[in-house]
Specification:
Residues 6-74 form the S1 motif domain. By secondary structure, the protein is α+β, with helices and mostly antiparallel strands. Helices cover 32% and strands 27% of the residues. It has a domain at 7-78: OB fold (Dihydrolipoamide Acetyltransferase, E2P), CATH 2.40.50.
Length: 124
């Protein structure tokens, strides 16, 4: 059985990197699911969505001449459910503002830590 573009397969996550996940396909072949192809939403940390050893359904996006296999979990789910695009649940304006303020505070705290470290180095 060869891996064909557009086909869906059951696979097992064999490794995770900051840019995606490696999925072991039938016959021992391995493909890469880029982080942008994991879910329909923004994925900051891939570990929040999948883990090593998870069984996943993937769709083959491309098989390169060099044997590299590009996969998508997101597109496998879209076709499998027979539905159009998923709508994100409605989030109130207050919830969005609270999330924005929380993220801003975290980013500001990180910047302060980094500037404190830089300030400490220059004094030495």
């Amino acid at each position: 059985m060869s891996i064909e573009t557009g086909s869906k397969y059951q696979g097992k996550v064999s490794g995770i990197t900051h840019f995606g996940a490696f999925v072991e396909l039938p016959e021992g072949k391995t493909g890469l699911v880029h982080i942008s192809e994991v879910a329909d939403q923004y994925v900051k940390d891939i570990n929040e969505f999948i883990k090593v050893g998870d069984d996943v359904t993937v769709k083959v996006l491309k098989v390169g001449d060099d044997g590299k296999i590009g996969l998508s979990i997101r597109k496998a789910q879209e076709k499998g459910q027979g539905q159009g695009r998923k709508r994100e649940p409605k989030v109130s304006f207050e919830d969005k503002m609270n999330r924005f303020l929380k993220d801003s505070e975290e980013n500001l705290a990180t910047l302060r830590k980094q500037s404190d470290k830089k300030g400490g180095r220059s004094r030495r």
